[in-house]
Amino acid sequence: LTDTMRAITKENYGIISPLTSENSNLKIKLEGNCDEWGTDEYNYALGLKRAKTAKDALINDGISKDRIVLVSFGESNPLCNDKSKDCYKKNRRVDYRLLP
């Protein structure tokens, strides 16, 4: 992770940790996403790799691995559809979702 991305995972941990302490059934779903470049198979694998990197950071910060679920949307869940570098950057991400 870059320093910027590590700061974001630390911030997310700060939000998630108290919630998981209060609710023993709460799980975290990490959704890996990609831009449209590459094959479907490549982007699916890349989405999983992104989600796993976020998972590893959360585990290192103290979240139990049993509470984390990974999913990859590959390129199928874009935030932006413009053909620009800024748009592609927005689509390369991991979304955090809390599951009851």
What does this structure look like?
The structure is a single chain. With 100 residues, this protein is of the alpha+beta class. Helices cover 49% and strands 21% of the residues. The chain contains three helices and three strands. Strands 2-1-3 form a three-stranded mixed β-sheet. α2 links the parallel β1 and β2 (68-74). α1 (3-22) packs across α2 (40-61). The longest helix has 22 residues, at 40-61. It is elongated. The termini are far apart.
Structure summary:
It contains three helices and three strands, in the order αβαβαβ.
Task: Please supply descriptive tags for the structure shown above.
alpha+beta; three-stranded mixed β-sheet; 3 strands
Q: Report, as a whole number of angstroms, the end-to-end distance.
A: 28 Å
Summed over residues and divided by their number, the pLDDT gives a mean of 94
Main beta-sheet annotation:
3 strands, mixed
Radius of gyration: 14 Å
Which ranges are low-confidence, i.e. pLDDT below 50, for 5 or more consecutive residues? none
Percent of sequence in beta strands: 15-25%
Main structural class: alpha+beta
The total count of helices amounts to 3
Number of strands: 3
The geometry reads as elongated
* Helical content class: 40-55%
The topology string of helices and strands comes to: HEHEHE
Could you state the oligomeric state of the chains shown?
single chain
